[in-house]
Amino acid sequence: MRDVAIVAFAQSAHRRRTDELSEVDLLMPVLHEVLGATGLKANEIGFTCSGSADYLAGRAFSFTMALDGVGAHPPISESHVEMDGAWALYEAWVKIQTGEADTALVYSYGKSSPGRVRDVLTRQLDPYYLAPLWPDSVALAALQAQALIDAGDTDEGALAEIGARNRTAAVDNPCAQLTGDVPAGDHLVHPLRTGDCPPIGDGAAAVILAAGDTARALCERPAWIRGIDHRIEAHSLGVRDLTDSPSARLAAERAGAFDRPVDTAELHAPFTSQEVVLRKALGLGDAVRVNPSGGALAANPIMAAGLIRLGEAAARIHRGESDRALAHATSGPCLQQNLVAVLEGESAHA
Questions:
Q1: How confident is the model over 86-135, as pLDDT tens digits?
Q2: Which parts of the chain register pLDDT below 70?
Q3: DSSP string, 234-283
Q4: Integer angstrom CA distances of residue 96 from 19, 40, 44, 49, 211
Q5: What is the sign of the dihedral through the CA atoms of 247, 250, 251 and 252?
Q6: How far apart are CA 2 and CA 14, in angstroms?
């Protein structure tokens, strides 16, 4: 296995609406920032991979237009996943492992503001039994929250505290959309209140991966990916225990998260109830600082929020604020798909 690290991370300032910006306009500053952090030019990158969703854009192959922001001529080695950018990072990591590239640019973006996100996300459900009923993402998350309450794992007060803690942490994050004292609000779908749910907004993120000595030359303290894995639950919600996440636990185990304690965890938990599930599945105690960036409750650009968790964890290692961090990304209803990566600083590896 080749040693691969995240050597740079950049993200946009997440906003409720960016009507005046196209996807390319949203991406360009982020790409310039992440490349500038390493001194690399776009044509010096060995592999480029992106993550986005055409359902958000409302048109097929919308990601090809985003390539204008990268510069695809002369021809580059490029790929795309119709997933959160965390899965694009996984593909890029595999590409570097094969030896076909030493560096990779990974980016993702999401503009949720043009449509109704709760309706759009129903299209990812089982097309025969669930999608025709149009259960939206908040309603499904409320089912999971109620299951946790019924099991005695949490209550509405504890969920409100999770939301408050995340958004208080986000005060120090200049890119966050919601920060500080955000009211719990009224019930949106019982038992979830507006404060238990993520903001709708637009945003983009990018990271650069590099292998071995190339990583050391590009970054003073690379965030080494010591393990990475992703797993999936059954598609049918009716056959799953919504109070647990076996796929997140298995991904963490395969990524080596349980080998030694982590000091930081960036969890992609758009709903407060999902943090309860993930903390239990990943065995995160009070000694672990969870979502110091504010997490997805502070900014949740769909298709970029998972990549941001990896980038935020890596950035803390770059700054020397963490030695061993866990980063998590999810996709699908009620934590259906889960990716876990373990990142370490050079001193931890030594």
A1: 999 999 999 999 999 999 999 999 998 888 899 889 988 989 988 999 99
A2: 347-350
A3: -S-GGGS-TT--HHHHHHHHHHTTTTS--SEEE---SSHHHHHHHHHHHT
A4: 37, 17, 14, 12, 7
A5: positive
A6: 34
236: left (phi over 0), alpha (psi -120 to 50) or beta: beta
Please tell me the number of Cα atoms within 13 Å of 345 on its side-chain side: 18
The strands making up 47-51's β-sheet, listed across from edge to edge, are 78-81, 47-51, 103-111, 202-211, 4-11, 223-232, 337-344, 324-331, 264-266, 289-290
Query: How far is C-alpha 30 from the chain's CA centre?
Result: 16
Q: Rounded CA gap, 229 and 341, in Å?
A: 7
Contact call for residues 38 and 7 (beta carbons, < 8 A): yes
Residues 6+ apart with CB under 8 A from 80: 49, 50, 51, 52, 63, 88
CA distance 69 to 168: 34
| DSSP secondary structure letter of residue 78 | E
Predicted TM-score of the model (pTM):
0.96
Q: What are phi and psi of 81, to 5 degrees?
A: -120, 140
Category of 39 on φ-ψ map: left (φ > 0), alpha (ψ -120 to 50) or beta: left
Tokens for 89, please give them. 């990072």
If you write DSSP's letter for every residue of 146-204 in order, what string do you get? HHHHHTTS--HHHHHHHHHHHHHHGGG-TT-SS-S-----SEEETTEEGGGSPPP-EEE
Helix (H) or strand (E) holding 109: strand 103-111
Q: Which helix (H) or strand (E) holds 20?
A: none
For the chain, the first-to-last Cα distance in angstroms comes to 17
